[in-house]
Amino acid sequence: MYVNSGAENVSMSLNFMGRKLRNHTVAPAAKQRAWETTDLSRYQDDPVVSTRVVLSHPIVSSEELPGSVPDLREEVQWRRSCNIHNTLLDKDKDRGAAKCEVSWLREGRLKWKTFKRWIGVDRHRGPKCRGKAPNVSSMSVRHPKDEAPVDIKMFIPYDSAKLCITQITDDMTAMKSRHQEIIQELEENFLIASRENQEKVAVKMRTYYQNKLNTLKRILDIYQEKVARKNTYWEEKVRTIEDLNEKLKELHLARAEMGKVQEMLEAFQEKKEAENTSEEKDSSDSDVPLDGAQARLEILKDNLLKREREISMLMEGQEHAHCVYAELTEAKQQFDQMAEDNQKILEKIKESLDQTVEESSQKSHEEQEDAQQKMAEPQVGDGSQARLLHHEVKQVALECIRTGAKPTVTETDMNEEWTAELDERVRKFEEDFQKNGFLNSDTDKSVGHQLLLLQAELKQIKDENKKIIENYTAERTLRKKYYNMVEDMKGIVYHSKIRVFCRIRPLTRAEQAKRGHTIIACLDDYSVILETPRGPREFQFDKIFNPECTQEEVFTESSGQCAIDGFNVCIFAYGHTGSGKTFTMVGDRDRRNPGIIPRTFTKIFEIIHDNESKFEFKVSAYMLELYNDRLQDLFVSPAEAFSKRIEIKRDRKGLVFAQGAETKEAASAGELFALFEQGCANRHIAATKSSRSHLIIGIMIESRNLTNGSVSFGKLSLVDLAGSERASKTGAKDDQLKEANSINKSLSALGDVISALSMEQPHVPYRNNKLTQLMQDSLGGNAKTLMFLNISPSDCNLDETLTSLIYATRVKAITNNAQRNIDSMEIAQLKEVCTLFIKITAFYC
Ligand SMILES: Nc1ncnc2c1ncn2[C@@H]1O[C@H](COP(=O)(O)OP(=O)(O)OP(=O)(O)O)[C@@H](O)[C@H]1O
């Protein structure tokens, strides 16, 4: 008999176990194979094993697993003696099985020694004993101390053997169930392990691909960014080229115009020269270097002069047209008067005629007929009929003049005598008209013809006037455009005038409620006309923004690029209280229409972003307010600012800086805007939300060229001036009056500086006020300056508007000396070393 132990069961065949794991049940064929693959040679001596095949009774039970124990009870009954051979169990490998091996001994309360004594193992040990006791069972055991397995023959009495076999069977059943449990456990563990493995692999794969995806995304983003940048760059290029094209076209046009003028000049010259001798002509021709640049410049100058002359002629023509127009109005008034007088006379004549008719109606019918006949013939009779006819015609003529209708001349009027008389009257009328500009009482009889002439002349004059005005406006616009272009070009390298942009705000609700009406109108993009009690006054600026202009349009016109290019730029808003300075510079209160300041922040960082590959930038800012003649740092709390002393200084290049003021760096437009908001919160603002202090923001931009190492510094000053106001008008008292006085004082100091500069006086009183000291580098200094003149369109602010317009006209005349602030690489490095040295010294001292 062969008892398959649990250990062997485990090591028996992995194939077998795998199949079992997959199928959960073992097929009878497989079971059979398992039995057959067992090494039977080891058990040659075992009579049970050797005879197993010849047994008529089936010894393989219906149990499914290998290691299952066949029911031997029958066999025991049938074959009284049997030799039991137990496969040795490795205790280390399967302690459970070893326990099973001896458990039945313990359960039977038999000690090992007792058991051995009882079965007489010692006495029957050795090869001699083998097969000599057919009435005992043999059992292989392992001594606990033995290293190698030892086969021990145990002779068990039949009765005990039966008991033993039953016990072994039970143990084996328990073992089998234990095996099944282990297999199940193994199966489960295997499944869990494989699932965990799968999950781990899946997670690993997912992470790997996620990483790959992220990398690809990043690369894609970089590419997209590069493409966007390239696109913007090309768009910018295209725009620049388009602009250049436009300018080129304009220049072509200008050249064509110049050419025409030149032709005219040449024709004129030729005409003149024809009068001179041919020798003189030859010599003069040889003198003029027509091909040279100087000559072209001369021609250009001549042409410009010619244009100027033409314009002044046009202006004269316009003035003449105005005069004629005014005289015509006067003549019309006289016509009206005449028509009225004539009507009165007509009525009188009609009345007297009616009276005569009534009187004569009492006479006989014949007499009546005679009288009527007399009335129908003007050349006969008492003349009242003729007078009536004359006044009637005159009335018709006057009416025609008044309404502009064509007079209808009856056939009776058109006899020879009448025509001759008419011609005579026309001649006289023309004479009178040329002499006096209007008709006199003697000429009023030839009304039909006179009227026609007058109307034609009026129409002609009106057309001419319109044409002159149109030409004049077009010419002026063109001139201003060219002037601006020249100024733009000039501004890059040397002296440039301060640009003045005038912005007219819409009527406010308060002004509408006061029924204020608009007294200012834009003639074109460069001129405004103001209605004053002394008549209209025209002002010209570099650009006029009408009330409909948006913040975007206003910002587009102002320049922000220059500070990055290394120029100093100053943009300041000037105007009376409530004229729209803060709206232009900062925007409205709920930030829906941001003004120049926030837009400039965005623009600066856009430009920086576009040039990052070529330059390295550093942006820092300070923010000050000038309140009651005191400079206060807005980047610190009001309490701290009060104890701080800020002094205005100038560096070697004349650049103004505020010593003692906090300068903060910003890495993005958002950061800069946050700093600005923080500063605004610390400002002095009146209860009416009107700014009662001057706001000065300085943005310093340092750019280092990565290719050649040169460093350029630009400063952008953004100034929102406080509004001037008349204390008498606002009724300010106490603190408000003090504020107003301080504001007016500083603005008047600014006015003094402006007039000194515009009149090119040797001394400019910058030091009279802190405001002028702060703006010293922007007015007449090393800066490109842009002034926004804000005005109200309402008649309620006529005086303030007029004053502001005159003030701004003076500013327009100031010339600045804008220069680029560039340091070479060596100077920049030297400066860096100096700064480092100062820092180190400060650290060790
Ligand atoms: N162009 C404009 N379009 C619409 N509203 C405007 C415009 N300009 C100014 N306003 C409005 O007019 C009012 C006065 O403008 P703002 O406060 O800017 O004037 P200010 O000159 O700065 O006055 P102050 O000197 O008293 O501070 C505000 O309500 C503003 O919203």
From TrEMBL:
Residues 269-291, 353-383 are annotated as: Disordered. Its main location: cytoplasm. Residues 269-284 have a biased composition (Basic and acidic residues). Residues 497-814 form the Kinesin motor domain. Residues 169-196 form a coiled coil. It is found in: Cytoplasm, Cytoskeleton. Keywords: ATP-binding, Coiled coil, Cytoplasm, Cytoskeleton, Microtubule, Motor protein, Nucleotide-binding. It comes from the Eukaryota. The keyword Cytoplasm applies. ATP binds at residues 575-582. SUPFAM superfamilies: P-loop containing nucleoside triphosphate hydrolases. Belongs to the TRAFAC class myosin-kinesin ATPase superfamily. Kinesin family. PANTHER family: KINESIN-LIKE PROTEIN, KINESIN-LIKE PROTEIN KLP-3. This is Kinesin-like protein. It comes from Labeo rohita.
